[in-house]
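Entry 14. Ran structure prediction on the chain below.
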Amino acid sequence: MRSRLYNNSISLPREYKDYIYGSADVVGLMCLKVFVKGDEKKYNELKQTAMALGSAFQKVNFLRDLKADHDELNRTYFPNTDLNN
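Output, structure tokens:
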């Protein structure tokens, strides 16, 4: 998250993946910890699904805010994408 303070664009697929992990996947994992109430087996079973759900929510947010991020903040979260074309 700190990286967005100094760099407005994500230009590499790895940066995109790392950002989504740090901003959304971990939220899915935190929620899952609560939902499984200490059941470590269930946590491990659902871990990838929880991360995928967090990623999906973050990507929807990127799309929702696409115009404002580009026009007002000069920011893009889509690597290798020229939003001017």
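The chain has a mean pLDDT of 87. Will compare against last week's run tomorrow.
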